[in-house]
């Protein structure tokens, strides 16, 4: 082919618009990963906090939420090995966690074998099975990044999720499979009967996996994953095979996803088709992106925020998935760096010692905006109640007040709160922008 | 023989329906290089809008108006959503359309609730067109076939014979050059996105009465549509047509003929193990073709991707 065809000559991923670039100077490109060195201190602090958390949250439901959070963190970090560090977007990553979990469940049910191993090493088996599957799938899916990879991941994810109702022997059909973690060999006398013991097991695995994943991102393979994400062509000129680099990232990610699945199996003692399907894969994408794919700690923040949001919102409203979806789309459109990106945006201001100048403008803008958004949410809830409540059921409770959703007054109040709140936020926004520019400019009058 | 004919017609209906979705999707892909995950959501919106309109002014107005509304919505999404996300790169674009798909599903549940809507075939078309040895073919199916074929011919004519089509084709391959010649390329992109989503909406309008109008309808068809354009080759209109028909026929035939894995394996010389109920592979042995009909497209896609990564009609990437 002598005629240059710009669409087809360049390898997939090498085109300008195909990449997540790493120029932190441009706001639009602040999607970097692994470009920040974490010291030991945050790790020690995080571990200590995790160890002492059950002292403050003693009841079982809090422990359940914390366990769920830890599992989501491991899974989201594993996912970000692909998305953030490798630039590969997977729509079927729940499959690797799910298969790891199912494998652990089967090991739990193989009583002869299970009695000879301590429960604490069970997630390793989950990881190995997740990795095994990733090795098979990755052998053809990592040939290219970008859209083709995303499509294959979706197809394989759907395929395996659909298999779960057909291959009953492994996936247990619609009711899934369940087991009992306490049959394992006691680990220094601990039989993991109680929730708190499982909690410590989970956080131990959380810290170990997070540390390993962080160390992985510092190894040459991890650094090459970043290089291949940003410019595969250049990486290949240096003598690295982009495909193999992607493959290594993929199987490492599969391993840690499997570990997360194993932890899930230990915690809940049941796995079903729900652990495999596209919805779970979508949730982990949402969690990771919300937290921020650009930084190693992004998915951690995302997992914590999402689990809290899910717990709080799903208790108080039927529409929580609607709000989560809105939040997700808003994040993609306006803050592609996610929560971690938002936090790291403030680092320059802190370094210049001007962060304090931002506090008042923030309060002036964000507080009315939050109130306005709550008013908007009230309108949404009232509309929902108006349309879908049983006939005759006109009472609804919102923000600790009970009123009649078919009267005009609550609508006026909610509408007024929305308009005034968002209106104030809009008028104070320019001042915030000015304060922001001022805080990020070195020197000058302060 | 008669059954084969009936299945051919059924498969044709499914395949052409798939094609109406995949044609728009593949056009949008070859233009912007982004896969629109929300494409099937526009199909769902088409069905819901048509239902709402059909209550007020009847089916035929719905057929006319609903795709237009969906197209305008689609163009709006391109103008105010995708174009904004485009600057962040490719992966965020994919994630954006994925989030949009989730959001539209929630929105539909919010407005219309979780139940299936009583959107049904119009009275005029609610009769049996003809029967093949006792299997009646409803007139609505024939109507669906005609609409789909008309759309395909229209699309082909516009794309290859008219001036607008020429500019679009040029903009697909060399957007910068076309822009230098004085054409408004962003407007072309927006237009193609709008037309693509309108086609999806139209598919929704005519499929809603037969396949059901419920919040999960986008999800049911959505991933199959992606599979279709991957098998056909990303960006190829003919590939989309062939793959759609292929998938339509494969799934229809697999569902109507009960082929058992046991017979198949016995036929090629592998005998059934004696204690089948204890075997690890018992589920594999008892597989039947209706059971796996819905996952056949995925299997086909994985095979295609392994052996011919560019798809059936796709251009090979150098």
TrEMBL record, chain A:
Q: Which residues form a coiled coil?
A: none
Keywords, in A-Z order = Cell membrane, Membrane, Transmembrane, Transmembrane helix
Q: Which residues cross the membrane?
A: 40-58, 65-82, 88-108, 120-142, 148-171, 198-216, 247-271, 283-308, 320-345, 366-388, 408-425
What's an example of a GO molecular-function annotation for this chain?
A: branched-chain amino acid transmembrane transporter activity
Disordered as annotated region, ranges: 1-26
Entry GO CC:
plasma membrane
Amino acid composition bias (Basic and acidic residues), ranges on this chain: 1-18
State its location(s). Cell membrane
Protein name listed in UniProt: Amino acid/amide ABC transporter membrane protein 2, HAAT family
- According to its UniProt entry, this protein's organism is Sulfitobacter marinus
Automatic annotation (TrEMBL), chain B:
What are the BP-aspect GO terms? amino acid transport
Which key words are in the record? Amino-acid transport, Cell membrane, Membrane, Transmembrane, Transmembrane helix, Transport
InterPro entries found in the cross-reference section: ABC_transp_permease, BCAA_transport_permease
Looking at the UniProt record for this protein, which Gene Ontology cellular component terms does it annotate, in alphabetical order?
A: plasma membrane
Membrane-spanning ranges = 12-37, 49-73, 94-112, 142-160, 181-207, 213-231, 238-257, 295-314
Give yes or no: UniProt keyword Protease: no
* One Pfam family per UniProt: BPD_transp_2
**Protein topology in the membrane:** Multi-pass membrane protein
Q: Where in the cell is it found?
A: Cell membrane
GO MF term list: transmembrane transporter activity
Against PANTHER family, the record matches this protein to: ABC TRANSPORTER ATP-BINDING PROTEIN (PTHR11795:SF442), BRANCHED-CHAIN AMINO ACID TRANSPORT SYSTEM PERMEASE PROTEIN LIVH (PTHR11795)
Q: Which family is it part of?
A: Belongs to the binding-protein-dependent transport system permease family. LivHM subfamily.
Q: What is this protein called?
A: Amino acid/amide ABC transporter membrane protein 1, HAAT family
- Recorded source organism is Sulfitobacter marinus
